[in-house]
Design goal:
By secondary structure, the chain is an alpha/beta fold. It is built from nine helices and 13 strands. Helices cover 36% and strands 17% of the residues. Bound molecules: nicotinamide-adenine-dinucleotide and uridine-5'-diphosphate (2 copies).
Length: 329
């Protein structure tokens, strides 16, 4: 059986990738240091003989015995409040973590796919965003720790491709959601759903006119798989092009939850919060024959069901707890 190494496997996207590749007949080596992820996300895999877990901070070198076919490099904080809370780790994992994973790919002659982001476009002046757009990033603003680390990651990946001939892929992920997001990670979907479940009003930042485009996790994973299996080394956008304002989105969540008693409350807009974001997915369609299939109504329903199923204390948790209960070491 061929082996796939996944960094960030205890995170939201990484854990879904593990499930997908296991069901496609691969063995998984999952790596994580639990800085923003949770053992809960991979607890169902702990007795699976095709799943091996290594607790490791990938900003330090990682040596693995035996062959590796593919590396999926997904380790990195992804939520704005996470990367503002741990800015140096965010830069280190994007820079040193990526360097180590490219070194590992080179040593193993493995194909590596790195997780980039729509944040490389910053607060975009072009709309929708095509892969050819170079972006509008504030290099010293609070979000720069994430944006610039991801831009550096892309540059380093292309350098390993061009200079060392490493087989590389770059996915630019746009806002993705689904079960296993952390309820308290501050991103808009867990934030709104948590508020609804606690019976609180929804916190819209700014006047809510800023837009986002939300992709359901199953669509995202399918896009990533197809990109990995393609022969295209340049960046590819994977996301859902259906754009919605955050205010309209808050109203959608209120409707879904049937909490007519709750309202929208307005809070200050965080610095450098992108005003519009929507992927141009023409390249993914042409190259991979991929486009999203899951409509927001369906995806949000599944996500809400997941949050409702969590133990009640999760709702009031402000920080991740001790994870040791979940994992057999
Ligand atoms: P997440 O926070 O749920 O998962 C990230 C995982 O990486 C966590 O389990 C965390 O513990 C782990 N990690 C972080 N630093 C590490 C280190 N130094 N060593 C080992 N493990 C480490 O976030 P996510 O939403 O699953 O995002 C995964 C990847 O996808 C990230 O690279 C992110 O930048 C990218 N991405 C996600 C989105 C999205 O909407 N979810 C959008 C754009 C890009
Ligand atoms: N590396 C690793 N595991 C390996 C091979 C390399 O973690 O199996 C790390 C190595 O420590 C280095 C980085 O990956 O920091 C880049 O490796 P490369 O071989 O490109 O080394 P460089 O040319 O940068 O010294
Ligand atoms: N947002 C909001 N209320 C919240 C959390 C986020 O209005 O409680 C807004 C945020 O300002 C941004 C959008 O929702 O405009 C998406 O935020 P998120 O943190 O999910 O991801 P981003 O796309 O900004 O990385």
């Amino acid at each position: 059986m061929e082996r796939v190494l996944i960094t960030g496997v205890a995170g939201f996207i990484g854990s879904h990738l593990a499930d997908y590749f296991l069901s496609s007949g691969f063995k998984i080596i999952g790596v994580d240091n639990f800085i923003t992820g949770s053992p809960r996300n991979i607890a169902h895999l702990q007795y699976n003989p095709d799943f091996e877990f290594i607790e490791h901070d990938i900003t330090r070198p990682l040596y693995i015995e035996g062959a590796i076919k593919y590396i999926l490099h997904f380790a990195s904080p992804a939520s704005p409040i996470d990367y503002l809370k741990i800015p140096i780790q965010t830069m280190k994992v994007g820079a040193m973590g990526t360097h180590n994973m490219l070194g590992l790919a080179k040593a193993k002659n493995a194909r590596i796919l790195v997780a980039s982001t729509s944040e490389v476009y910053g607060d975009p002046l072009e709309h929708p965003q095509k892969e050819t757009y170079w972006g509008n990033v504030n290099p010293v603003g609070p979000r720069s720790v994430y944006d610039e680390a991801k831009r550096y990651q892309e540059a380093l990946t292309m350098a390993y491709h061009r200079f060392h001939g490493v087989d590389t892929r770059i996915v630019r992920i746009f806002n993705t959601y689904g079960p296993r997001m952390r309820l308290n990670d501050g991103r808009v979907i867990p934030a709104f759903m948590g508020q609804v479940l606690r019976g609180e009003n929804l916190s819209v930042f700014g006047d809510g006119s800023q837009t986002r485009s939300f992709c359901y996790i199953d669509d995202q994973v399918e896009g990533i798989y197809r990109l990995l299996m393609s022969d295209y080394p340049e960046p590819v956008n994977i996301g859902n092009p259906e754009e919605i304002s955050i205010k309209a989105f808050a109203e959608e969540i209120l409707q879904l939850s049937e909490r007519k008693d709750l309202k929208i409350e307005y809070h200050p807009l965080p610095q450098d919060d992108p005003k519009r974001r929507c992927p141009d997915i023409g390249l993914a369609k042409k190259l991979l024959g991929w486009e999203p299939r899951v409509h927001r109504t369906e995806g949000l329903k599944k996500t809400f069901e997941y949050f409702k199923s969590l133990p009640a204390e999760e709702l009031y948790k402000t920080e991740p707890k001790d994870f040791s209960d979940y994992i057999k070491r």
